[in-house]
Amino acid sequence: LEKDAAAMVAVAREELERLDKFKQSFSLTTAFTLTVAHEFRAPLTALQSFLNLLYNGYVSPEKQKRFIEQAIERSQGLLDMVDDLLNLATAREEMSPRNRVLISLAEPMEQAGILMQARAEEKGVSFSMQPMHRPVIEANPEQMREVWTNLISNAVKYTAAGGSVRVILEEREGWAVGTVEDTGIGIGPDEQ
Fold first, then answer.
1. At 149, which helix (H) or strand (E)?
2. Which residues of 38-50 are buried (b: 16+ CB within 10 A; e: fewer)?
3. What pLDDT does 140 receive?
4. Which among 64, 98, 101, 128 has the fewest CB atoms less than 10 Å away?
């Protein structure tokens, strides 16, 4: 009887924990939905007001162009918000555990480096890759390739002929450390 009771208590605890997680998830989803709805409401209301004024003829012909410009600006703001939401959803999906695998971080670095090396040579920029270590991480391989491509591409792009780009991968105290060094124009402190 004690054994059965202990098993029932364990099942009940698991169900209560699952219910708590669901409530938290639902609360976060509801809060997010309310925030998104609020952010969309103001520009949509303004856009509708502009269009109604134009449709009903309350705007003189000489002011119509400005009202249409404002409507276009509001609609662009809405499109920007939609793009942000799509990017967020895509990033979350790409970061989900089912899209991550164990990879050597050196592989996407080398793939990106090979492509960028040709571009560097065309510009007269010295290019070297130094995978000191080959740390294994759990990540989305495509995202890691994009990160390396972006960093190396910017280094090559902003380094003048005669300059150099050096890509280093090492492992320090259990951390994978990737470094892209260049003799380019750099990034101003206010933009870092």
1. helix 141-157
2. eeeeebeeebeeb
3. 86
4. 98
98-103 CB contacts, 8 Å cutoff, 24+ apart:
99/140, 100/138, 100/139, 100/140, 101/138, 101/139, 101/140, 101/141, 102/136, 102/137, 102/138, 103/136, 103/137, 103/138, 103/139, 103/141, 103/144
CA distances from 49 to 63, 72, 90, 104, 166 (A): 15, 13, 33, 55, 55
Chain centroid to CA 132: 28
Contact 131, 114 (CB under 8 A): no
Distance (Å, whole) CA 159 – CA 186: 9
107/99 Cα distance (integer angstroms)? 17
pLDDT single digits (tens) 68-126: 888 888 888 888 888 877 777 776 666 666 778 899 999 999 999 998 999 999 999 99
CA distances from 94 to 85, 89, 97, 139 (A): 14, 9, 8, 9
